[in-house]
Design a protein that fits this description.
The complex is a heterodimer of chains A (95) and B (193).
Chain A (H helix, E strand, L loop, with lengths): L1 E4 L3 E4 L4 E5 L13 H10 L7 E7 L7 E7 L5 E6 H7 L5
Antiparallel strand pairs in A: 1-2, 3-4, 4-5, 5-6
Chain B lengths: L21 E4 L2 E6 L2 E8 L4 H12 L9 E4 L2 E7 L2 E7 L6 H9 L3 E5 L4 E7 L3 H8 L12 E6 L2 E9 L3 E7 L3 H15 L1
Antiparallel strand pairs in B: 1-2, 2-8, 3-6, 3-7, 4-5, 5-6, 8-11, 9-10, 10-11
The chains are: A alpha+beta (95), B alpha+beta (193).
Chain lengths: 95, 193
C-alpha cells in the first residue's frame, strides 16, 4: 500500500503507523456541562464503515507528521491524504 | 582559556573513542563525524514567515525546502518536518549554537539544543548505492545533491543527507544507538563489498 504524502509524495505504508478514526481530532471540551457523556461517546462510539473511512496515520519513519487518510476499507484504495494539522485547524482546533 | 576548560576531562565520541572512528573498505569510507553543533528550529504557529526571514539573515541563506538540506558558509540546515528544521555549525566556533539561533529568531521560533542527541556517520566512495540500498528504503538512486530524507536503518529513525549522489552521504541517527547504527553500516558494507 502506498500513501501519497502531501509534502513528500508517495511513500510505502511500512513507514507509517495507524492510530484510528479521524474523529479523534474532535476531542470534546472537558469543561462542558455534559463532558462525561461527550467523552463516553468520543471514546467508545465509532462508525465501522465498509467503504470510505477517514483515519489518522503517523509518518513515524519519515517526517513525523500526522495525516488524515481517506481510505476505502473494502478495496484499500487511498482516495485522499491531508496533513492532520490542516484538517484540525479547518475544524477550529489547535488555537 | 575559558572558565571550564581546565576540568581535566576528555570528551568521547558517540562510539566511545577519543578520536572519531573510521572504517575503510574497497570503494567506501565510513567516518564518524563529531565536530558539528546542532540545534532544532521550529516555527511557532502563525510565525512561519517571521522565522524563515530571521533564520535566513542569521544563516546567510534561506532555510531548506521540504525533503532537502543546504549549506551557507559554515552553517548547514536540513528540513525535518513541517515548519521544523535542524541547523548545524562547526562545534569549535558555535558551541552555543542554540542560544545564538534563539536570539536570532526571538519569539517567532522555538529552539532546542540537539548536539549531544545525535551521532553522524559520513559515507564516501563509489560503493555508496550498493550499501545504502541494503540499509533503507529511501529511493537513493534517483536522488540528487541536497536531498534530505528521514528514513529508517536497523529500525532506527535516521536522517540521510545526500552531498553527491552515489559518492557522499551523511547519516545522522540517535546518539544512544550509535553502536547499533554503526554495526548496521559496517555489516551492510561487509555484505556488499
Amino acid at each position: 500500500m502506498i500513501i501519497n504524502h502531501p509534502i513528500l509524495g508517495p511513500r510505502d505504508s511500512q513507514e507509517f503507523t495507524y492510530l484510528g478514526d479521524a474523529t479523534l481530532i474532535d476531542r470534546p471540551d472537558w469543561e462542558a456541562d455534559d463532558a462525561a457523556g461527550q467523552f463516553h461517546d468520543y471514546l467508545y462510539l465509532r462508525d465501522n464503515p465498509a467503504g470510505e473511512h477517514r483515519e489518522l496515520w503517523f509518518h513515524e519513519q519519515g517526517d513525523r507528521s500526522w495525516l488524515v487518510v481517506t481510505r476505502n476499507t473494502v478495496t484499500h484504495e487511498i482516495l485522499n491524504v491531508e496533513l492532520a494539522r490542516d484538517v484540525a485547524r479547518a475544524r477550529g482546533r489547535s488555537k | 582559556m575559558g572558565k571550564f576548560d581546565n576540568h581535566g576531562l576528555k570528551a568521547v565520541s558517540p562510539l566511545g573513542g577519543y578520536e572519531p572512528h573510521v572504517d575503510a573498505f574497497a570503494g567506501l569510507l565510513i567516518r564518524e563525524v563529531t565536530d558539528r553543533a546542532l540545534a532544532s528550529l521550529a516555527a511557532r504557529q502563525g510565525s512561519e514567515d517571521a522565522v524563515k526571514s530571521a533564520a535566513a539573515s542569521y544563516l546567510g541563506g534561506a532555510l531548506p525546502e521540504p525533503a532537502s538540506w543546504n549549506a551557507n558558509g559554515e552553517f548547514a540546515a536540513w528540513w525535518m518536518g513541517p515548519d521544523l528544521w535542524m541547523v548545524s555549525a562547526p562545534h569549535d566556533s558555535h558551541e552555543l549554537l542554540a542560544g545564538e539561533l534563539k536570539e536570532a529568531v526571538g519569539d517567532a521560533g522555538s529552539v532546542v539544543e540537539q548536539t549531544d542527541g545525535w551521532c553522524r556517520f559520513d559515507m564516501e566512495g563509489s560503493r555508496c548505492f550498493d550499501v545504502l540500498e541494503r540499509l533503507c528504503n529511501a529511493n537513493i538512486r534517483t536522488g540528487k545533491p541536497g536531498d534530505a530524507s528521514r528514513t529508517s536503518m536497523e529500525h532506527l529513525g535516521v536522517f540521510l543527507l545526500c552531498h553527491e549522489p552515489g559518492q557522499k552521504y551523511s547519516i545522522v541517527g540517535p546518539r544512544s544507538s550509535a553502536g547499533s547504527l554503526h554495526h548496521a553500516l559496517v555489516a551492510a558494507a561487509q555484505s556488499a563489498i
